[in-house]
Design a protein that fits this description.
- This protein is of the alpha/beta class.
- The protein has two domains: about 300 residues, Zn peptidases (Aminopeptidase); about 140 residues, Aminopeptidase i, Domain 2.
- The protein is built from 13 helices and 22 strands.
- The strands form five sheets. The chain has a nine-stranded mixed sheet, with helices on both faces.
- Helix 3 crosses helix 13, helix 4 packs parallel to helix 8 and helix 8 packs across helix 13.
- Bound molecules: manganese (II) ion (MN) (2 copies).
């Protein structure tokens, strides 16, 4: 009997696919390293709650790591380029000729949130209110009866930029959207479908209560708020028209669990991949291939616009890299390089939720704690609207991760016809580069308090670092 068992075990070890729990692969030191890594990550999350703040943080951090702003003369080995303060690229010139292609990691730094409408302020029942237009895929009920912070910029007619960040310090004021009391919710909310229970136009922000002292004046609370905004920021009502003001949860990134094994925070989709790829870019001192990290905006609304993945920013940045490598950036050379490049689309994946196992297909979905997740494709039922990584490239990444001892898994988003989602992979695939989705599994994705495993976060960082390092 014992002999048969021995043979079975040998065969199993040889031919069966086995996922590995990251914690079983770590010794005590590695657990400590992963926990230490999460400390820096939480600080980043707290500082970088919007795309503009993330880009500013990434730029500052990269500067400390020796990256310099692109210069027309070129020659620098570590460069960055801003795209309208909402998107940034970092690059490091490698040892091999750039014609052999670039190693690219593309993440996004925008997250679902509530934007103020361009004309937001009104008064109702002696309260000042602000109208919002939600950005990206939110579940509206998650945003009511919560402390919210206001971040963003107001650009005055003169071009002067007023930076806004209210609600992050302990003594700061916050904003909130009032929810209806359960006693009166039956018809207005509870008998409706969840998605209809809270209407978009009811996501209005409570923003003030004190009236302007002259009792003859109209809309006295609104007037007093405008007066106060003018005193404090020098802005007038028309300035809202040229503002980008975003409401985000006022909460901080926290450890979750008695053992502190999870990080929970707003905005981990996709700042977990942004932070890990930033750290990987900073730590790879002399890559064999030229490396490039893109931190994109507008992924959550379809990658449209001049700061999203559908813009041509990447081509311009590759031209900068060519100059830095001492080469003439012709159109055809840029295209050839992108065609030969290899990329990781650094975006999060849904981890199987113990409460909703029925929307998942456990054999092919990501498990929390089983490491960084590769996804051959994303999209929706029938593999529509997605890049599908070539098996040859999957094999190459698989070989690299196995050789470097990365804890990784292959994951698909939920059951086949359950729903779906996309990433920027398909937009970069247009250039012909090999690309595969590779990121951290999350629970509560797109909620104000997304959850990630510290082990998966650390393996994401290690995977990106080895990918960038090259041979
Ligand atoms: Mn994402
Ligand atoms: Mn998303």
């Amino acid at each position: 009997m014992a002999e048969i068992k021995e043979v079975t075990k040998k065969i199993e070890d040889k031919v069966k696919l086995k996922g590995k729990l990251v914690w079983d692969r770590y010794d005590g030191n590695q657990v400590e390293e992963a926990f230490e890594f999460a400390e820096g990550y939480k600080q980043f999350l707290n500082k970088a709650k919007t795309e503009r703040e993330a880009v500013a943080e990434i730029m500052q951090s990269a500067q400390k790591a020796g990256f310099g702003a692109v210069s027309r003369k070129g020659k620098d080995k570590r460069i960055y380029r801003l795209n309208k303060d909402k998107c940034i690229g970092l690059a490091a010139v490698g040892k091999r000729p750039i014609e052999e292609g670039i190693r690219i990691i593309a993440s996004h730094v925008d997250s679902p949130r509530l934007d103020l409408k361009q004309n937001p302020l009104y008064e109702e029942l002696d309260m000042a209110m602000l109208r919002t237009h939600y950005y990206g895929g939110i579940k509206k009920y998650q945003w009511v009866a919560q402390p919210l912070a206001l971040h963003g910029v107001v650009i005055k007619e003169s071009g002067e930029k007023v930076m806004v960040r209210i609600g992050e310090e302990a003594e700061d004021l916050v904003f909130t959207i009032c929810d209806l009391l359960p006693h009166l919710s039956r018809k207005a909310q509870e008998e409706k479908k969840l998605k209809d229970a809270i209407e978009a136009e009811k996501l209005t922000i409570l923003a003030g209560h004190l009236p302007y002292p002259d009792q003859e004046a109209k809309e006295r609370v609104k007037l007093r708020i405008l007066e106060l905004l003018h005193e404090r920021y020098g802005i007038v009502e028309e300035d809202f028209l040229s503002a980008e003001l975003e409401l985000v949860p006022a909460s901080k990134a926290r450890d979750v669990g008695f053992d502190r094994a999870f990080v929970a925070s707003y905005g981990q989709d996709d700042r977990v991949c942004a932070y890990t790829s930033l750290r990987a870019m900073e730590e790879v001192a002399s890559p064999s291939y030229t490396t490039l990290a893109l931190f994109l905006d507008k992924e959550e609304t379809g990658s449209e616009g001049n700061t999203g993945a559908k813009s041509r920013f990447l081509e311009h940045f590759v031209a900068d890299i060519l100059r830095a490598a001492g080469k003439e950036p012709t159109d055809i050379l840029i295209r050839e390089i992108l065609l030969t490049s290899k990329a990781l689309c650094a975006d999060v994946m849904a981890g199987i939720d113990p409460n909703y196992k029925d929307v998942h297909e456990p054999q092919n979905n990501a498990k929390m704690g089983y490491g960084v997740c590769l996804s051959k494709f994303t999209g929706a039922g029938g593999k529509y609207s997605t890049s599908d990584a070539n098996a040859e490239f999957v094999a190459e990444i698989r070989e690299l991760f196995n050789r470097k001892g990365i804890v990784w898994q292959m994951g698909e988003l939920g059951k086949v016809d359950e729903g779906g989602g996309g990433t920027v992979a398909k937009y970069l695939a247009l250039y012909g580069m090999d690309i595969i989705d590779c990121g951290t599994p999350l629970l509560s994705m797109h909620s104000p308090f997304e959850v990630a495993s510290k082990g998966d976060i650390y393996e994401t960082f290690r995977a990106y670092r080895f990918f960038l390092e090259g041979e």
